[in-house]
Amino acid sequence: MRTLSLVDLMAFLEGLQWTLVLVVLSFVFGGLLGLTLALLRTSNVAPIRWMASAFLQLVQGVPLLALLMFFYFGMPVFLGVEVPSLMAVTVAFSIYSGVFLGEIWRGGIQAVKYTQWEAAASLGLSRWEQFVFVIAPQALKISLPATVGFLVQLIKGTSLASVVGFVELTRAGQIASAATFQQLLVYSIIAAIYFAICFPLTQWSRSLEARLNGTG
Amino acid sequence: MALVEIKNVRKSFGALEVLKDVSLTVEEGEIVTIIGRSGSGKSTLLRCINGLEDIQDGEIRVEGQQVHGQMKKLRELRQKVGIVFQAFNLFPHLTVERNITLAPIRTGRVSKADARALAEKVLAQVGLSEKIDAYPEQLSGGQQQRVAIARCLAMSPDLMLFDEVTSALDPELVGEVLKVMEDMASRGMTMILVTHEMAFARDVATKIVFMHQGRVWEEGPPSELFSSPKTPELKSFIGSNH
Fold it and tell me: Which of these, A31, A144, B24, B221, could form a disulfide with B6 (CB 3.0-4.6 Å)?
């Protein structure tokens, strides 16, 4: 047994790096999936809406931990090859993020008055142009506070990746705690690091919300 | 060939039939005013002309082109048919200039370099040159509606549709919008309006269409229709509007 040292703190920082890598990857891929789901869920074609909705219900009805296990243990089975744990957890977190972002953005899209679609359509713009130039900018503004709020959830949520051995911040903490038996100290530091990242984001989300509500 | 040909159009919202066998022809240069009580189907008819509403039976042709059919054709058609709405429907996140130039740029009518000049030109036509960099929320209702008209004009439409465009305005702002519409009429724009402004209908329109219970009940030049209505329904409608 040894006491907590600078080496452990360096390990935490390294773990934090992987937490951030996972967050960025999940947010990017999840964002793409979310945008797709939001568009499908607001499609004019009913069967497309139903399919997107079914996928969403399925994922939302499964605990994140189960989703993580499913991809970590399932991907080697389905693909027939070992996959790096980063890939497995990225897939799981991307799907998780995609479903939540998709719902947030769908709400944003639907909060834009339908007459905006009509006005844009009446000018001879295609459905895609109507979305990109008229609907999306307004929907994004509406969804921004909730999107940042979800980002905070995602950052904290990535700690679950520790259970499949992916060495992010929480896992780095577990390792140090096992070596030093200074659990309280270790996890206090880990919690402080999460807080230091999430708190400013939460504040930002709040100020966005206040600003957007203020200007209507 | 008439600019707009509406033949035996039927339109239902669920079980409710709002247009019952409507036929109407609009020639180039005509200014047609559709009047009638609320629920008579006049706004719906107007929205059918640029395909915002689909129809269950009959057909509508604009410049010989069928409105309800291919999406791509409809898009091309809409570039030549402007519509102004009761609630303005400007894009709140864009400046007046961008509101006006978005569609002309996207549809290749004007280059980005020439877009501002186009916005200046159409804004001058509605008397709002100084508002080119404003956002819609900074404008009064009357100004917003004039920008909405300018936005249509920027597409150089062959036909303009007006859906109760003064109904949401404070009374003192109605005049400035009607004046812009009169200017357009005097320049020979083909216009179809749904309106409650009877004085405007009488003075500017070349043809009045009175709709009642989803049908074209009576139509003709304003002098005839207003002075000697043939049906008791129109007589009572005119009476209630004086």
Answer: B24
pLDDT in tens, A40-78: 998 889 999 999 999 999 999 999 999 999 999 988 888
pLDDT at A216 over 60: no
**Which of B79, B89, B102 is nearest residue A118 as measured by Cβ atoms?**
B89
Q: Is residue B111 assigned to a domain?
A: yes
Residue at B208 is within a domain? no
In the predicted structure, residue B241 carries a pLDDT above the cut 80: no
Domain that holds residue B104: 81-157
Q: Do B78 and A121 touch (CB under 8 A)?
A: yes
Q: Is the CB of B52 less than 8 angstroms away from the CB of A121?
A: yes
Nearest to A122 among B50, B90, B92 (CB): B50
Pairing type for strands B159-163 and B81-84 reads parallel
The residue length of chain A stands at 216
Q: Which two tokens stand for residue A122?
A: 């009446």
CA distances to A28, A47, B46 from A151, rounded to whole Å, are 11, 30, 46
Q: Is the pLDDT of residue A81 over 90?
A: no
Across the interface, which of B82, B83, B103 has its CB nearest the CB of A125? Answer: B103
- ipTM confidence: 0.93
Q: Is B27 on the interface with A (CB under 8 A)?
A: no
| Model pLDDT, residue A214 | 58
Tell me which chain A residue has its CA closest to the CA of residue B155: A123
Measured between alpha carbons, how far is A38 from B221 in angstroms, rounded to an integer? 51
Asked if residue B185 is part of any domain, the answer here is no
Task: Decide if pLDDT at A215 tops 60.
Answer: no
User: What residues contact residue A43 under an 8 Å CB cut-off, 6+ apart?
Assistant: A49, A52
Q: How many CB pairs under 8 A join A and B?
A: 55
Q: With CB atoms and an 8 Å threshold, state whether B85 touches A124.
A: no
Which of A1-10, B16-25, B118-127 has the least mean pLDDT?
A1-10
pLDDT of residue A117: 96
pLDDT of residue B242: 60
Contacts of B93 in chain A (CB under 8 A): 137-138, 141
